[in-house]
Design goal:
With 389 residues, the chain is α+β, with helices and mostly antiparallel strands. The strands form 2 sheets. A 5-stranded mixed beta sheet has the order 3-4-2-1-5, covered by helices on one side. It has 2 domains: 1-244, no CATH class; 251-388, no CATH class. The protein has helices at 3-21, 26-36, 41-56, 83-102, 125-134, 140-148, 152-165, 179-186, 190-203, 206-218, 230-234, 250-262, 307-313, 319-338, 340-347, 353-361, 367-388; strands at residues 66-71, 75-79, 107-111, 114-118, 222-227, 264-269, 276-280, 298-301. Strand 6 and strand 7 (276-280) form a beta hairpin. Helix 1 (3-21) packs across helix 4 (83-102), helix 4 crosses helix 6 (140-148) and helix 7 crosses helix 9.
Length: 389
């Protein structure tokens, strides 16, 4: 979610909080919100109820000038309306610093409105507040770049860029490539710089993060430490997030479209099993066709599913291999039947062939309806993935 949309949520929170303190009833506040935003009474009331609980129980409300940092049963939750890129950047900096200090890995989970860090019990919200207060904005970018080197995502990005540069064979096995070897050979080269640039551009927002840290340092943004609040809990216990209408507005749908169109996808011919194409979703033809055998049985795989190509090519397959190969065939069958529409669904986060098929079968009359169904499926994936990861 873009920073601007998440920032508006802070505006809405502040407005609701003011109305609660002014003595307005939930019904009055909900009706006022419904005049401003395209939403229904049930959704609006659920938001107002969370906000009233937040205010009545004495918790600070996270807004544009207040960030709350909360203790939550083995975790620390930072409530900040930064959007995905800003929160990913801040979370990455904090997890890198905490990991270095504690000598252990720090798990991180983000959404547009909060950052969750899984930490040892001895680390409290007050400790994280001190860490943020001591952070020099000038160190944000170097800390992020340094921490990237130790992530599997950076390994994947380095390999993809190396393949584009011709430094690695396009059929090279991801699992057999040593990240340390790649760094030893290519660190400081244009190829390394391109991998870092793509991650900074696609996944992070250094500029806004530096600005926020600077505003914290100057006192423009306040940090408040305490126990976990209703807003903090709403993002991680299956509760509805603040301002999460059943019908996504136009800006959210447009952001989703742009993200999916910019996502990369691997096209693999399941007939000849020779043709592989790596491209962006926006460049996929309406009806993908293999240029080698003219088959339309084309699987659309996410970048981290590249290993499935090796499995599908195997002549002798184990029981697990057969299961995975059938999943790839199901993927290709969807593309055969629905073309680029299937590629868009399959490129979405958390949507495998079965879920993508259900989304496509709804056959919405308008394009926005199709993307709303994708958004709902992605949200359901985020809500439930912790039970089957």
């Amino acid at each position: 979610m873009p920073f601007g949309v998440a920032d508006e949520v802070c505006n809405i929170r502040a407005g609701i909080g003011s109305k609660i303190r002014a003595g307005l009833t939930d019904d009055e506040i909900a009706r006022d919100l419904m005049e401003q935003f395209p939403t229904d009474m049930a959704t609006t009331m659920s938001v107002v109820e969370i906000m009233r609980k937040q205010v009545n129980e004495g918790f600070a409300v996270p807004t544009q000038d207040t960030i709350t940092v909360e203790d939550a049963n083995g975790s620390v939750i930072i409530n900040i309306c930064g959007g995905h890129k800003v929160n990913n950047t801040i979370g990455g900096v904090l997890s890198a610093l905490l990991s270095a200090r504690l000598g252990t890995s720090v798990a991180m989970e983000i959404d547009p409105y909060r950052i969750k860090l899984d930490l040892p019990g001895k680390v409290r919200a007050a400790d994280v507040v001190r860490l943020i207060m001591d952070l020099d904005p000038a160190y944000v970018e170097p800390i992020i770049e340094m921490s990237l080197k130790h992530t599997t995502f950076f390994k994947w990005k380095m390999i993809q860029v190396a393949k584009k540069f011709g430094a690695i064979n396009t059929d090279a096995d991801y699992e057999r490539i040593s990240l340390q070897r790649l760094l030893d050979v290519y660190e400081g080269t244009p190829m390394y710089d391109e991998a870092v640039r793509e991650i900074f551009q696609d996944k992070l927002d250094i500029g806004r993060t530096v600005d926020i840290i600077g505003r914290i340092d100057s006192g423009e943004i306040l940090l408040a430490a305490g126990k976990v609040s209703p807003i903090g809990m709403s993002g991680f216990v299956g509760g509805r997030d603040l301002v999460s209408p059943a019908r996504a507005d136009a800006s959210i749908i447009e952001a989703l479209k742009q993200r999916i169109m910019n996502d990369r996808v691997i096209l693999f011919c399941m007939t000849c099993k020779k043709w592989v194409s790596r491209t962006r979703v926006s460049r996929v033809q309406e009806i993908p066709i293999c240029p080698l055998c003219e088959s339309r049985m084309i699987a659309a795989l996410k970048p981290w599913e590249e290993e499935e190509i090796t499995v599908a090519k195997k002549k002798e397959k184990t029981a697990d291999d057969l299961k995975r190969a059938r999943r790839v065939y199901r993927n290709a069958s969807l593309v055969l039947s629905h073309g680029r529409t299937a590629v868009i669904a399959l490129a979405s986060r958390g949507l495998g062939p079965e879920t993508a098929s259900r989304v496509i079968r709804k056959m919405r009359k308008d394009e926005d309806g199709f993307y709303r169904d994708i958004l709902e499926a992605e949200r359901n994936y985020v809500r439930t993935k912790r039970f089957w990861d």
